[in-house]
Amino acid sequence: MLVRETLCTAKRIVVKVGTSTLTYATGKLNLQRIEKLVRELSDLANQGKEIILVTSGAVGVGVDRLGLKERPKTIPEKQAAAAVGQGILMHIYEKLFGEYGQIVAQVLLTREDSVNRSRYANSRNTLLTLLATRVIPIINENDAVAVDELKIGDNDTLSAMVASIVEADLLIILSDVEGLYTDNPATNPDARLISEVADITPELEALAGGPGTLRGTGGMYTKIQAAKIAVSSGVAMVIASGGRDGVVRSIVSGEPVGTIFLSKENRLQIRKRWLAFGARIRGTLTVDKGAEKALLEGGSSLLAAGIRGVEGQFEHGNTVRILTTEGREIARGLANYSADDCRRIMGAHTCEIAGILGYKPYDEVIHRDNMVLLV
Q1: In whole angstroms, what is the distance from residue 88 CA to residue 62 CA?
Q2: Does domain 4-271 have CATH number 3.30.365.10?
Q3: Which letter does DSSP use for residue 268 in this model?
Q4: What is the average per-residue pLDDT within 132-152?
Q5: Contact between 323 and 363 (Cβ < 8 Å)
Q6: pTM
Q7: Which of 181, 220, 268, 347 has its CA 20 to 30 A from that of 258?
Q8: Rounded Cα gap, residues 114 and 109, in angstroms
Q9: DSSP string across 151-195
């Protein structure tokens, strides 16, 4: 498990940079900041580290080039702006990285690349092959074709998904804030920066606010969700200000910059990473205290007797979340029964299922082999 003092040993590093870091308040690209970031990443690559860059900014660059007065609101308008902006942004990256002798490759992803197991595996193989040939992948969500139901949602989540897919050692999210605070620093001068997070609790999630800027789409909430994906996949994550000079170098050197989220010690198997973070969530099961303890301490399967609530419309084989009665997500897994059947058998003993449903294909609602714990 990486801590601050050992971040210098990180071999495979994913860096996510947001729109607010890449652009000025005018909406135009901050070329000086981009050039400094490229120089830092190139220097890390020269040290033998494997670098992946997840970049926002395609829509913003397209908006500027098209002369639009504000960010578009409809999907076709956003896609048109992204189609224009992606080429421009990639050209800038290719030119700047090329000046430092680095080869880059553009990779555009959508949610289908994570929810479909074969495409998930193919994305992994492609990225690992690029890294093996000393190429720096530059990744963005494919905004030019993705519609809402196919979108990953934001590049914070995308970067965590990528870090999980390639089994990165470190994820760095560069934002317009220094890290996670005890309160909103813009309104509370007494707000303190939280330097280290060992466990993402509901209280910690409550500290997250909405989107940070009008130009960006991801606020601190999305970064906390990204951290949950990263740390559960064995990836340490740091949130820091992209406006700080030499920020990436400082983080990798172990300096106390931003907020570090410490990773879980055991990496999830590839199949369980997909199950936890790639598969589309179709519903929710709420469990009682007894089932919660059995899952977390005993490594048990989930039985109908421990279920207290069912939400959503899912079918047999769909992925569902498992929540405590306080609303904390503790696991995800593949359901052996549909939502309707779960509602009928929740609270019942296993021996009673056949009498209620007329059949009993499984003893467990979710078998432990098809479940991944998130805490």
Answers
A1: 8
A2: no
A3: P
A4: 68
A5: no
A6: 0.78
A7: 268
A8: 9
A9: ----HHHHHHHHHHHTT-SEEEEEESSSS-BSS-TTT-TT--B--
Q: Do residues 235 and 263 make contact, with C-beta atoms less than 8 angstroms apart?
A: yes
Contact 137, 130 (CB under 8 A): yes
Please state at what angle helix 220-232 crosses helix 155-165, rounded to 10 degrees.
10
Residue 362 tokens, joined: 């499984």
Centroid of chain to Cα 361: 35
Cα–Cα distance between 139 and 90 in angstroms, integer?
10
Outline which parts of the chain fall under CATH 2.30.130.10.
Answer: 280-373
Residue type at 193 in one-letter notation? L
One-letter amino acid at 223 equals K
Q: Phi and psi for 108 in degrees, rounded to 5?
A: -110, 130
In 71-169 the beta strands, taken as DSSP E runs, fall at: 103-109, 135-141
What is the CB neighbour count within 10 angstroms for residue 213?
A: 16
How far apart (Å, rounded) are the C-alpha atoms in residues 211 and 220?
Answer: 7
User: Which pLDDT score, from 0 to 100, does residue 124 have?
Assistant: 86
Let me know the angle formed at the C-alpha of 72 by 68 and 77, rounded to the nearest 5 degrees. 95
CA distances from 80 to 75, 146, 349 (A): 9, 11, 55
What's the rounded Cα separation, in Å, for the pair 38 and 72?
Answer: 29
Q: Give mean pLDDT, residues 205-224.
A: 62
> Residue 176 pLDDT > 80, yes or no?
yes
Q: Which CATH class is domain 280-373?
A: mainly beta
CB atoms within 10 A of CB 11: 12
- Cβ neighbours, 10 Å, residue 290: 11
Residues sharing a CB contact under 8 Å with residue 18, sequence separation 6 or more, in sequence order: 56, 155, 156, 173, 174, 175, 176, 216, 218, 242
Task: Name residue 99's amino acid.
Answer: E
> Where, residue-wise, is CATH 3.40.1160.10 in the chain?
4-271
In the block, tokens 């700047």 appear at: 96
Q: In whole angstroms, what is the distance from residue 91 CA to residue 239 CA?
A: 27
Q: Would strands 170-175 and 135-141 be described as parallel, antiparallel, or unpaired?
A: unpaired
pLDDT-derived band at 142, boundaries 50, 70, 90: low
Eight-class DSSP state of 143:
T
Q: What is the C-alpha separation between 11 and 97, in angstroms, rounded? A: 20
> Would you call 17 exposed, middle or buried from its count of C-beta atoms within 10 A (0-12, 13-18, 19+)?
buried
